[in-house]
Structures are given as C-alpha cells and as structure tokens.
Amino acid sequence: MAEDPVLPPHEGEGDLGALIDLRADIEQTGVAEVLETLDRELIGLAPVKQRIRETAALLVVERARRTVGLATEAPTLHMSFTGNPGTGKTTVALRMADILHRLGYSRRGHLISVTRDDLVGQYIGHTAPKTKEVIKKAMGGVLFIDEAYYLYRPENERDYGQEAIEILLQVMENNRDDLVVILAGYADRMTTFFESNPGFRSRITHHIDFPDYGDEELMVIADKMLAEQNYRFDDAARAAFAEYIPLRRGQPHFANARSIRNALDRMRLRLAHRVFSAEPLVSRDDLMTIREADVRASRIYAVGAAESGAGF
Amino acid sequence: MRITQGTFSFLPDLTDTQIAAQVQYCLDQGWAPGIEYTDDPHPRNTYWELWGLPMFDLVDAAGVVHELNECRKIHDDKYIRINAFDSSHAWETVRLSFIVGRPKSEPGFKLIRAEGHGRNIGYTTQAYATDKPEGERYG
User: What is the tens place of the pLDDT at every residue in B80-101?
Assistant: First the structure.
C-alpha cells in the first residue's frame, strides 16, 4: 500500500547483539500517550486496561522482532469485548483502533460501528452486498460489531445472518492485514454465540471482559460527565446522587455509565425548569449547580422507598 | 495495438501497488471510485459497463482493490478502468480515470476509407475486435 508501516529489516539479520529501545519505540509511536489517556479518561476497568497494555506490549514486541528480521506471521488481532451495557466497550474499541493505527497494524485507524441491521439484508441476495459494503468501508481500520450474537438466530435456520457470518469469517481470514474485527455483546450470549459458531472462536484470540462499575466508580464518572458539560453537584446533591446509584442498580435495565448519563440529563432538565420558573435574575452559579431537589425528584427514590417499606 | 486513455495514458500499465496508491489519493480527495469494464475499445465508446456501484464513503483503498480483483476474475479479457467521481458542488464529474486491465491481445484498428463526391475521401477507424458480437470479442 501507499505507506508501509513496517520498518525495513535490520541490516545484519543474525546480529544478536544489536539493541532495540522498546521504550523509545513506544514513545515515538505515541502509544504511551494513548495508554495514558485511556488510564486518565476511563474510570475503573482495571482488568480491561491490563489486557490492553498486554496487547500493546505484544504488538510493540512483534514490531521490534520484525525490525531485526525475526520472521513472524502477522498476529491475529480480531477481538471480542464482552460485558454489560454501558461498561465502555465502544469507547475502548475507539482507543484500540487508535493504538493499532499508531503501531502500524491498521492503516487508517478509523472505526466503523455496526449492528445486525447494517449487515443483514431483508430478502434473499440482499445480505452479501450489504455486508461487503460495510466491510469495504471498514477496510484499513476496525469493524466494531455491537451485539454480535444477533447475527446468529438458531431458531430460524433460514435466517440471513448466517450468510453475513460466512462472509465475515472469510474476510477475517483472508484480509487480516486490512481489517480488524471487534465483536461486542453481553458475556453470556456471546458465549452461546461462540459455541454455535466455532469459526469465530478460533479466529478471535483476544477476549476482553468488561466488569460492571462499582458505585464509587459511577460517582466519579458522574462528576466527570458533569464537569465536561460545565455543571456540578452541590454537596447535598452529591450525597443524594450517591444514594441514587445503588437504587438505580436495583432497577431493571440498569446500563452502568449510560444510565448515569441519562439520569444526569434528566437532572439538567429539572435544573433548567427550576431556574426558569424562579426569579428572572440568575447567577452563573445558579446555571451550573445541580441542587438536591433536582436529584431527589427522581422517581427512583419513591420506588426504592416503597420496596424497602414492603420489605419490612 | 496497445490502447491508452485516461489520466496515465502515457505511462506503462500501473502495478497493483500503484493502482492502490492512486485510489488512495482519490479517496483522500473525497472522490468516489467506481470500476467499469468494456470489450469495445473504440476511443469514442463512453458507455462502459458498471461493476457494482461507485464506492462512496470508503476510507482505505483495500476495498476498491478487492472489488477490482473480483472484476478481473470475471472480466479478465476485457478493458477495465477506475473512475473517480467528485460529487462536490460545481464539479459533479469524473476527476480521474485510468485503465487498470486490458485483454491479452489487442488486434488494433482497421482504417476505413469512404469515397465521397469528387475525389473526397472520409476516414474512420473500426476495431478488429468489434467484428464479433459483444461478449465474443477477445479470446
């Protein structure tokens, strides 16, 4: 291709004494920077960060090995991200695309995020062109398939998803240099998916599991989200929100950071309403501080109270 | 007789690496590459067949090269070209077009003289290949 990311083979191939500065390599490619941002911007997710560091280390070492002429096959980079909703799979996939790009394993470093709808057609002969179209767009970058287990519908043997799976498998094998595929979804359903599609399991070497966030981590995330939008909690509101998190967790459809973001959006709405209906003169502080009343207005507290009342 | 037309007509045929590099340039400019083929080599033949649709929204040339190879599998013995369409306002036209595949043997053109009034002669050319019907030309 236009730019060959691989460094030319070292002059003396048998020269075992020549030293390569891996640290300099990491610095130079900017991977260290990406890893640091990952550490700084993503709260929690310790096991995920650990795995990404390991993967990055592997890629740097592979690169160094090629520099000194130690022949290696291009590593298989397809990955699977499993975890509950809102645990940062998409965000990490974006960072991953960046890391792969900086290390020269992905030429463009862009990420195409798709779901079943983008790959599977509605009638016979519709699926293949659709899937190929998406694959062509993702070439040179990363194809992120969210909720990948929907591709396989065991209850309908004529489901077109199977066709998309076959094309994907073919591309994952033949165009390993052009495309990295990341599959994402709930842990249990992905396990079933891999069991019924052994082709996928054998082509994916990196399985990364995303744990749920703890209550304190969600609190930190909430503060961060607010700070990014120039809002903040006052002390009472923060205390109220700390109560809110475990209550929300007990409710159905809890989606970790995403639920927190939605809750914050509703609080902004209440803040706006409160400020708007109060006196016409507002200060800068009024416009950015979420107060306890904005938090406490959530119906979660009522539900929580009713449930704990029923429990006694 | 080796037919030439389009952007790199004065150069030898491009290698696959060179083709990929040119396509990448087109993509970087925001143009949509499309693949076309024909078995009528006449220079005034502007109606080439489309291979699939023009490829909008691509980032990397690998996708186009993949399609080109698919096209070559089937239309190995025909002329294949890549067009890059610029959809931006006031251009809305092909910005770059070059041949990426040709038949193994190209018999060339016959010169036809048509005698007119007096001693006037009108000239035209006809490809030997087009003596045969479409689909049976070249091999």
Answer: 999 999 999 999 999 999 999 9
C-alpha distances out from residue A98 to A44, A238, A279, B56, Å: 20, 35, 49, 23
CB contact set of A278 (below 8 Å; sequence gap of 6+): none
Residue A8: what pLDDT?
46
Inter-chain touch B61–A140, beta carbons under 8 Å: yes
Q: Is the dihedral of CA A148, A150, A151, A157 positive or negative?
A: positive
Indicate yes or no: pTM above 0.95: no
What are the pLDDT digits (tens) for B26-47? 999 999 999 999 999 898 898 9
User: How far apart, in whole angstroms, are the C-alpha atoms of residue A131 and residue A212?
Assistant: 32
Distance of CA A275 to the CA centre of its chain: 36
- Between B139 and A89, name the one with better pLDDT: A89
> What strands, in cross-sheet order, belong to the sheet with B79-86?
B49-51, B32-38, B79-86, B93-101
Q: In terms of Cα–Cα distance, which of B2, B132, B16, B13 is closest to B69?
A: B16
Q: Residue A232 and residue A181: Cα distance in Å, rounded?
A: 39
Helix, strand or coil, per DSSP, at residue A280: coil
Tell me how crowded residue A125 is: count the other CB atoms within 10 A of its CB. Answer: 10
Distance from CA of B133 to the nearest CA of A (A): 31
Question: Mean of the pLDDT values across residues A187-203?
Answer: 87
- Considering only CA atoms, which of A263, A267, A258 is closest in space to residue A212? A258
Predicted local confidence at residue A46, as pLDDT: 86
Please check whether residue B97 is in contact with residue B84, taking contact to mean a CB–CB distance below 8 angstroms. yes
If you count residue pairs, one on A and one on B, with CB atoms under 8 Å apart, how many are there?
45
- A88 by Cβ neighbours in 10 Å (0-12 / 13-18 / 19+) ranks as buried
CA B126 from chain centre, in angstroms, equals: 18
Radius of gyration (C-alpha) of chain B in whole angstroms: 17
ipTM, two decimals, is 0.78
Instruction: State the best of A110, A114, A135, A137 to mutate against chain B, taking most chain B CBs within 10 Å.
Output: A137
